[in-house]
Amino acid sequence: MARIFVSLDQRIDGWDAPALRARSVQTARVYDSAQRPPPAIEELREAWRYRDLIGELVVRDVKTRYKRSVLGVAWTMLNPLLMMLILTFVFSNVFRFEITHYAVYMLSAQIVWIFFSQTTTAAMHQMAWGGPLLTKIYVPKAVFPLAALGTGLVNFALALVPLALIIIVTGVPITPAMLMLPIPMVFAACLALGVGLILSTISMWFHDVIDMWQILLTALYFFTPIMYPRSILPEGYVFLLNLNPVYHIVELFRLPIYIGWPAGPYTLLAAAVSSFVALVVGWLVFTSRARSMANQA
Questions:
Q1: I want to staple 120 with a disulfide (CB 3.0 to 4.6 A). Which of 44, 166, 196, 272 is the partner?
Q2: Please, are residues 102 and 186 in contact by the beta-carbon 8 Å criterion?
Q3: Of 78, 79, 75, which Cα lies nearest the Cα of 66?
Q4: What is the pTM of this model?
């Protein structure tokens, strides 16, 4: 028996052990945090891996919003329509703005604004809702702002239905320029996501940002020519209007519908630059702090 044990030990030490050690070294996976990709790339990859979860969150938000509503999803279409009727009465009869087809003029801008305001606000609420979840299981943090964007795009698409009805009823000509409408919709999505990412990052440390953003949205709404013509603004405020990224996207979306002609190259360039800069900056800011968000939840 002693000879057997000795021979086994010798075999392990003399021949099998080095082979086993070499194989274990080859198959071992060494974790090195220095070899991780940049946070922006890593979060993008993880968000793509969890794309099914993003879809589930969008479906959940849509169902939850209209679960106990009598009108259901139709409320998304009636909400901007009713707002348009009220503002049309006020500004056409009380303030008497001389704008032909005022209903189309206002509604085409209103639905862009509703998408922007709802998406940016929902991004913060999504992070607040998902905060406790981050401390229990691993979920890419970008999932929640992206889900807010997905829900906003669904509502945006539904809001196009009453806009199309108003265009037909009021007799506004349908022109080939309307084929360009997906371009401002993409810019609006980029801007809303970029701003939503920045706000979501800040709100994880300062929860009052959600309330402060509502005040800023009100000020920005009245400073954007949505329900009034740009011509009524004093000349001294025009340069501030040109710094408003929402205004350029609104004009890019409204002009093909209202006048049947696409916006000029300056408006297109301003909308493109502002929206993509907001998206890149928002993504970099958000992903740079994503790894520490679980500690703040």
A1: 196
A2: no
A3: 75
A4: 0.81
